[in-house]
């Protein structure tokens, strides 16, 4: 029943704020129902777009679904999870690459982002233009970035090797090499996402009070000491937030890896992270049960990383 | 926050979750219940196709078909990967918004037939004398038949061709006729330090398997023998070693990341002496906007190995009808029209190799191809093996396994141990795949 279906007396109750003796109860009831009516569209959206796929993925993860999800499938308990966790050929190397890619890229982005933010902290001529230029990689889609770098780094026709040769350095295979692919991809990720770290940290720096730094300066602290013992501790909350946001995003990187290395992350699976592996299981191998189990494990892994980072950040700010 | 308010918020959270789940269920049920059984008279016939020259060519004639059937035709064109993913998602949802599907018979058809995603065309193709199903070449016809049911009709056929630079081999007595000669001449012509390569080809793990298959057959091997793995036989190992050495010693850097899209431009830009790939892509080398070799390119049959010159001869693309389509009759009319003897001859006359014997016997249609290429195609069709990849449900996984020793060979690693390891993995895989297929 909606508020419109209540009687005139009860509607009055709603309007006068429930000042009469037994009126508040009716007002609350009407308000509660109205609340659900107002929430319904959002609930419908959340239910259909988030909860149902989540439950369906869980259901698939415990089944032997293969080929077609709408054909008969049997529940196999934890078999997909044990298969994934026992797979040393693809699953664990993918976990390792996911960690290496995330830690390496995010660490570099944080250091470079912080350095750039410190440089841009004080206003300078052309600062507005620098900020606009910094935004360009952020605004470009990862697939376009992948194709762009694929062309630049092409071992035969790319401009990168021409530049290397022009300064007397040997040409490199870059993304065409099994050993160079992951480091190259990390550097592309750094190129794209360092500006975001810079902007986040710059926002954090702009909120810091100037007095503690000035006091340290008066006490004779040099620039590094002021940064290490004054600025960095005050910036730790912003830094932790930026790290969590960027780490979660880096863990989920897919477009760049797929656009540059294709299915399976390359010929020797050299850029196959958990996300790429799960995608391959779904779309190349059509093993929906195993793919869902890998995705569940991946989600738990991300939640674990976030909890660890938040706990660390909480301890440091305390 | 008080304990009471916390418990209240938890209860509210529970209610929210329950309501969201119920809403999701409701939406799903509503979606299922709302499905129509018949198509609107104004609904267009929807064709989903690959960005292949065949799709571009047939689109030019749509007006004729629309007039004939009285229904609008809409064609969506996607890359091969996008096409596969699109079918996967839509057919899993029993989607009705695809009527005719352009697909790769050797990659998709076993699985699609296993999932009952494609309509049975047996009575339609065999029950129409004018259509003449027997006019289709034997190998493509067999590849479009699963468990005695015709589930697809071939539209494009492919064989391997040796693309070579006439200006470079003129003094060497012409193109190599054997694999040994190919290796020797590639080594002789390669000048890798200055960016010129003897041979360029696909080197990416899964992408290279279909082209490597011709090397495998010509060394006397195959992917499977009696449904068992055969990728660690002496013949297979010799084929892995040969292909690896050819690419490692005479090919471009970064070759393990190369599929058709990366390898083809290197030859088109005049940076390699030889390139082996499907004959159907020859137009790329004759287009002056993307090729610098249009005046110097030559075409030759696949060179002979120890077991002879055995390339593949396959239907690379075919048309199937979505089993969930609401316009199956009109969809069949489209397939019948697009693959009729007259239309195949017209399309082949545009330079796109079809699957009908009558078109290949027609000198007018062959006139569209360079004479040397037409002869290469004729020889390839005569000798060709009817598959270029393992014949399994999970072709993607099979190609990944088979391609592993190939990558090891290209990287200069010791092939036999990798081949034996891949062989064991492939054997396990075949057991599971056969179980799914009910073999």
UniProtKB/TrEMBL annotation, chain A:
GO cellular component, one term: plasma membrane
Region Disordered, residue ranges: 1-23
InterPro entries in the record: MetI-like, MetI-like_sf, UgpAE/MalFG_permease
SUPFAM superfamilies: MalF N-terminal region-like (SSF160964), MetI-like (SSF161098)
Chain segments annotated as coiled-coil in the UniProt record: none
Keyword Coiled coil: no
UniProt GO BP: transmembrane transport
Membrane-spanning intervals of the chain: 36-56, 99-120, 132-152, 288-309
Keyword Transmembrane: yes
Keywords: Cell membrane, Membrane, Transmembrane, Transmembrane helix, Transport
Membrane topology field: Multi-pass membrane protein
Pfam families, A to Z: BPD_transp_1
Signal sequence, start to end: none
Entry's localization field: Cell membrane
Residues of the ABC transmembrane type-1 domain: 95-309
Chief location: membrane
Protein's UniProt name: Sugar ABC transporter permease
Originating organism: Streptomyces hainanensis
Automatic annotation (TrEMBL), chain B:
Coiled coil: none
Signal in keyword set: yes
The keyword Signal appears for this protein: yes
Cleavable signal peptide: 1-22
Database matches in SUPFAM superfamilies: Periplasmic binding protein-like II
Keyword tags: Signal
InterPro entries: Bact_solute-bd_prot1, SBP, TAT_signal
Name of the protein in its database record: Sugar ABC transporter substrate-binding protein
């Amino acid at each position: 029943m909606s508020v419109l279906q209540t009687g005139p007396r009860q509607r009055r109750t709603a309007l006068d704020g429930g000042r009469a003796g037994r009126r508040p109860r009716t007002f609350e009831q009407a308000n509660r129902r109205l609340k659900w009516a107002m929430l319904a569209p959002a609930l419908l959206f959340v239910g259909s777009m988030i909860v149902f796929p989540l439950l369906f993925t869980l259901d698939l993860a415990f089944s032997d679904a293969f080929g077609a999800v709408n054909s008969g499938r049997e529940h196999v308990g934890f078999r997909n999870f044990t298969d994934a966790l026992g797979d040393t050929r693809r699953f664990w190397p993918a976990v390792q690459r996911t960690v290496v890619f995330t830690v390496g890229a995010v660490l570099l982005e944080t250091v470079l982002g912080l350095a750039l933010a410190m440089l841009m902290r004080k206003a300078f001529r052309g600062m507005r233009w620098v900020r606009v230029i910094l935004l360009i990689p952020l605004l470009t889609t990862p697939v376009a970035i992948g194709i762009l770098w694929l062309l630049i780094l092409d071992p035969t026709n790319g401009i990168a090797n021409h530049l290397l040769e022009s300064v007397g350095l040997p040409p490199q295979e870059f993304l065409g090499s099994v050993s160079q692919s992951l480091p190259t991809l990390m550097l592309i990720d750094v190129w794209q996402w360092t500006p975001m770290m810079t902007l986040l940290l710059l926002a954090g720096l702009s909120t810091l009070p100037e007095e503690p730094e000035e006091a340290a300066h008066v006490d004779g602290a040099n620039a590094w000491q002021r940064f290490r013992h004054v600025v960095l501790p005050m910036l730790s909350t912003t830094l932790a937030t930026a790290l969590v946001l960027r780490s979660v995003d880096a863990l989920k990187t897919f477009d760049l890896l797929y656009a540059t290395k294709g299915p399976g992350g390359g010929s020797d699976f050299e850029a196959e992270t958990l996300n790429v592996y799960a995608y391959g299981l779904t779309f190349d191998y059509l093993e929906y049960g195993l793919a869902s189990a890998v995705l569940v494990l991946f989600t738990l892994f991300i939640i674990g990383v976030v909890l660890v980072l938040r706990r660390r950040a909480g301890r440091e700010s305390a | 926050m008080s304990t009471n308010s916390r418990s209240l918020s938890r209860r509210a959270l529970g209610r929210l979750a329950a309501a969201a789940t119920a809403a999701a269920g409701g939406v799903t049920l509503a979606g299922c219940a709302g499905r129509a059984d018949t198509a609107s008279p104004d609904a267009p016939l929807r064709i989903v196709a690959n960005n292949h020259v065949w799709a571009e060519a047939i689109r030019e004639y749509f007006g004729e078909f629309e007039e004939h059937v009285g229904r609008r035709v809409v064609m969506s064109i996607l890359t091969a990967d996008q096409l596969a993913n699109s079918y996967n998602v839509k057919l899993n949802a029993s989607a009705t918004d695809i009527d005719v599907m352009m697909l790769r018979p050797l990659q998709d058809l076993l699985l699609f037939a296993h999932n009952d995603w494609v309509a049975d065309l047996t009575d339609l193709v065999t029950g129409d004398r004018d259509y003449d199903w027997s006019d289709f070449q034997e190998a493509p016809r067999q590849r479009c038949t699963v468990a005695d049911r015709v589930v697809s009709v071939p539209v494009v056929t492919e064989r391997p061709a040796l693309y070579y630079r006439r200006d470079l081999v003129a003094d060497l007595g012409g193109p190599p006729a054997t694999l040994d000669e190919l290796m020797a001449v590639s080594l002789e012509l390669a000048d890798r330090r200055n960016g010129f390569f003897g041979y360029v080809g696909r080197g990416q793990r899964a992408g290279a398997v279909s082209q490597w298959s011709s090397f495998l057959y010509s060394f006397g091997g195959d992917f499977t023998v009696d449904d068992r793995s055969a990728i660690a036989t002496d013949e297979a190992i010799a084929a892995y070693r040969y292909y690896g050495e050819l690419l490692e010693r005479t090919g471009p850097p970064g070759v393990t990341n190369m599929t058709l899209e990366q390898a083809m431009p290197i030859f088109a830009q005049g940076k390699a002496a030889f390139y082996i790939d499907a004959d159907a892509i020859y137009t790329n080398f004759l287009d002056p906007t993307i090729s610098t070799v249009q005046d110097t390119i030559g075409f030759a049959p696949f060179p002979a190995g120890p077991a002879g010159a055995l390339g593949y001869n396959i239907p690379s693309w075919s048309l199937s009808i979505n089993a969930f389509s609401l316009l199956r009759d009109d969809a069949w009319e489209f397939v019948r029209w697009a693959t009729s003897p007259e239309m195949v001859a017209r399309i082949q006359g545009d330079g796109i190799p079809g699957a009908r014997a009558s078109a290949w016997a027609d000198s007018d249609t062959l006139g569209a191809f360079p004479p040397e290429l037409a002869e290469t195609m004729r020889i390839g069709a005569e000798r060709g093996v009817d598959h270029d990849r393992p014949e399994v449900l999970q072709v993607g996984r099979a190609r990944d396994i088979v391609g592993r020793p190939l990558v090891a060979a290209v990287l200069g690693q010791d092939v036999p141990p990798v081949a034996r390891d891949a062989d064991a993995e492939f054997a396990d895989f075949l057991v599971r795949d056969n179980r799914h297929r009910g073999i």
